[in-house]
């Protein structure tokens, strides 16, 4: 009798363990109607191995072909797989090499600073040229409890963690939203930081805006560990519960005779 009651109780407990609370699926739960100042965007600095698209156009807005640089095949299969075929790779010493002016220091500088440097050095050769510089390999990788884990190439230089999650199809029901891990490499140092997307403090985090090559990992809730077992019991609970109830009733009746 006790064994059967214990079995019935375990069925109920295991079934409930696999379920996800509604509160676990909410984001920014502490935000009220308000107006808040938006902090200025973090300044992105160029790093070794970044790929820069550099376009130089003349006074008639025609692209000067000498600056159209195709990435070499050697060692760059990753960029080609992500659709990156043109650009200047920043070498390990932090330099790129351009026609006319040769070596240009890029690592540690902003896109604007590199653009101004190139423009000032090109004046003697192309006095009316206009220089445009942008990141080509601004990519982020999302893994874990998102619906479309993948590496995404970003067409601009502004992407925050909420936009990245949305781009990956949102969190799965089992996502641990209050502890999202961001891995960032900066100045040859790997940084690990967790942010809480359920709290408005996420907007003040220095990791709210992502940087090129960031990796975002969304861990699962503990409920996922029981999901398979819980799903099994939930699927067959319509059979288990009546049987357990009937057997308990019959045994109880026989013991009372």
Give a verbal description of the structure.
The chain has 257 residues and is α+β, with helices and mostly antiparallel strands. Helices cover 26% and strands 23% of the residues. The strands form 3 sheets. The protein has a 5-stranded mixed beta sheet with strand order 7-6-10-8-9, with helices on one face. It has a 3-stranded antiparallel beta sheet with strand order 2-1-5, with helices on one face. The chain is elongated and about 105 Å long.
Low-confidence stretches: 22-26, 73-78
CATH top level class name of the largest domain: Alpha Beta
**What is the count of DSSP helices, taking H or I runs of 4+ residues?**
6
How many β-strands, per DSSP? 10
Looking at the structure, the CATH topology of the largest domain is Outer membrane lipoprotein wza fold like
Order of helices and strands: HEHEEEHEEEHEEEHH
The main pleated sheet reads as:
5 strands, mixed
- Name given to the CATH architecture of the largest domain: Roll
Strand order of the largest sheet: 7-6-10-8-9
How far apart, in Å, are the first and last alpha carbons? 15 Å
Binned strand content: 15-25%
Q: State the CATH superfamily name of the largest domain.
A: Outer membrane lipoprotein wza domain like
Structurally, the number of domains stands at: 3
Which structural category fits the helices and strands?
A: alpha+beta
Outline: elongated
Mean pLDDT: 78
């Amino acid at each position: 009798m006790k064994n059967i009651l214990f079995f019935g109780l375990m069925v109920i407990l295991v079934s409930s363990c696999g379920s996800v609370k509604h509160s676990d699926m909410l984001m920014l739960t502490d935000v009220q109607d308000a107006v808040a100042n938006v902090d200025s965007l973090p300044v992105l600095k160029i790093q070794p191995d970044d790929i820069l698209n550099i376009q130089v156009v003349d006074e008639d807005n025609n692209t000067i072909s000498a600056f159209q640089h195709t990435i070499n095949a050697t060692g760059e299969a990753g960029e080609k797989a992500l659709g990156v075929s043109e650009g200047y790779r920043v070498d390990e010493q932090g330099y790129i090499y351009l026609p006319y002016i040769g070596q240009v220091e890029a690592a540690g500088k902003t896109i604007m600073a590199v653009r101004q440097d190139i423009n000032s050095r090109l004046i003697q050769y192309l006095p009316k040229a206009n220089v445009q510089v942008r990141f080509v390999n601004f990519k982020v990788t999302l893994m874990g409890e998102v619906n479309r884990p993948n590496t995404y190439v970003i067409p601009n230089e502004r992407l925050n963690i909420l936009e990245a999650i949305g781009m990956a199809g949102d969190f799965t029901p089992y996502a641990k939203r209050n502890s999202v891990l961001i891995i960032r490499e900066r100045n040859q140092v790997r940084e690990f930081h967790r942010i809480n997307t359920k709290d408005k403090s996420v907007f003040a985090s220095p990791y709210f805006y992502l940087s090129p090559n960031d990796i975002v990992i969304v861990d699962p809730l503990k409920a996922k560990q029981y999901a398979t077992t819980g799903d099994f019991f939930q699927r067959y609970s319509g059979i288990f519960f009546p049987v357990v109830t009937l057997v308990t009733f019959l045994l109880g009746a026989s013991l009372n005779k």
